[in-house]
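= Protein in question =
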Amino acid sequence: MERDSTRRWTLGDLSREVGLAPGYLAALFVQEVGVSPHRYLTEHRIRLARHLLATGDLPVTAIGLAEGFGSGQHFARVFRRVTGESPSEHRRSVP
């Protein structure tokens, strides 16, 4: 998932990639990683987006789309839920 984080992964896609049943994969993933595959992917995308916000000048919407979010609004909503701040607030807070 990390190598292709912009892909619209489903649990079925992931289970086919690794050759495990979806339910078993989800349970094993949570056991080993501590979060669901979906949450892991979301948090990974947000980490990448935070880096882009801090180091570049791409528009917020472009960063969200580049990281695999379906729209700028969805990206902003998920970013706030995960980090507690909007993408723009994050960008302004970075020295």
Observations:
- The two ends are 31 Å apart (CA to CA).
- The mean pLDDT is 94.
